[in-house]
Structure formats: C-alpha cells, structure tokens
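Dear Dr. K.,

Following up on our conversation at the group meeting, I've run the structure prediction for Endonuclease/exonuclease/phosphatase family protein from Alteriqipengyuania abyssalis. I'm pasting the input sequence below exactly as I used it, so you can double-check it against your construct before we proceed with anything downstream. Let me know if the numbering doesn't match what you have in your notebook.
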Amino acid sequence: MHAPTFKIASYNIHKAVGTDRKRDPQRILNVLGEVDADIVILQEADRRFGQRERTLPDFLVEQHTDYVPVPFDVQHDSMGWHGNTIMVRRDIAILEHDILHIPYLEPRGVVTATLRLPAGLELSVFGMHLDLSGLWRLRQARAIAELARAAQEQRPTLLAGDLNEWRPNGGCLKEFARHFTVLDCGRSFHSQRPMGRLDRIIHGAPLEAVEFGVHHSPLASRASDHLPVWGVFRIPH
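The predicted structure tokens came back this morning:
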C-alpha cells in the first residue's frame, strides 16, 4: 500500500497583472487549475498600496475553483498579509492560522497555517516573500527558519514562496538548508524567458518530495511575471 501524496504550489501572481499589462484574476485562477495543487501559497495577492485590496475576488475563487482562502482577516479587503496568502482545497481542514512579523527594509510578512489533510496528516505551512536586499533577506530567512523549526517539532512542516534569491545555493538558502531541504524546482522568473530560480519549496522530515518542478504553459507565461512552482510530497510508512 502506497503512502498518500499531496501537492503544494507556490505562485507570485504579480497582483494578477500579466505580461500584457492587463489585470486578469480569472487568468490566474485558470493557471491554478492547470497546476491542480491541494495547497497553494500565493505572493502579491493584494495590491501593494492604498487599501491593499485583494486581486482575486472572493466570488471568483468560490465560483471557479475548489479552493478556500485561509481567513487571515488582518487588513480590510485584503486577502492576506503583505500580499502573502494560502488557499486550500475544500476537503482540507484549517486548524490554526497566524501572521508573523519579520525584520524588513520593505514591508514584508509571513503567513502560516496548520492544516489537516483528508488522510489525517497534519501539516504546518509557511508562505513568504523575502526582501530584495540580500542583508535583509538573510535576517528574514534566519527568523523564519527558527519559527519553522519550532513548528517542525510538532508536525511536518513546509515553507514556500518567492525568496528573491538569485544565487543557486547561497545567501538566504543556506539559512533554510541548516534545518530543512530546499528544493530547486527550476527557473521561474521571468515567465516569458525564465532565468532566475527565485521561487522555492522547502520541507522538513519525514516528508519526502516525490517530484517537483516549474509549471510552464502558454497561459502561465502571460498571466504573471513569475511561473508557479510545485511539489508532490508523501510521508513514508
């Protein structure tokens, strides 16, 4: 009997503005339909200034997907915290959720949720979008890794997001690699000519990555300036 698997994806949706400069939330949801993940970590899910309105309207998510946004309810009309949010399939239970403050130069934050999958497995999930500054990225990664390590003592833990790290194995990646496995899903930025491996999925034991990669389709290359990254995981017996 094989251990059950689940799929997680991370996607910087660029406030639903595509490479054609058109804001099209339905196009983002269609890309998520192509990826077909159980858990989705999003960055830039809210507008950056003003009221920071969500860029994926509730009615579109409800009518056109099988996802439920984790209800962070931090800012009025926002979907997440500093643009970071988590969505899960309707059959996944959201046990806890929280926002985390981290050191920053630009406004940054982290979202986290404790989830129970249909097979009964409980997970801690962290979503993040790190700073453009290498020094601040390092500080942020150190703080997040410590929080995730504490969560890992309670249950299997996954982290995902846009790390803004251009070095393949250096910088902030070293901080996460002290305690976790950092997956190199592939080149995800820029979506029309991928060069940077900016988007990462990170996991702790006993989770095993069955497969992982970048979702590259004609629609995804237009919907945002990033491509989604994904990973399929299992816990071995």
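Two things stood out to me. The mean pLDDT is 93. The chain has five helices and twelve strands.

Best regards,
J.T.
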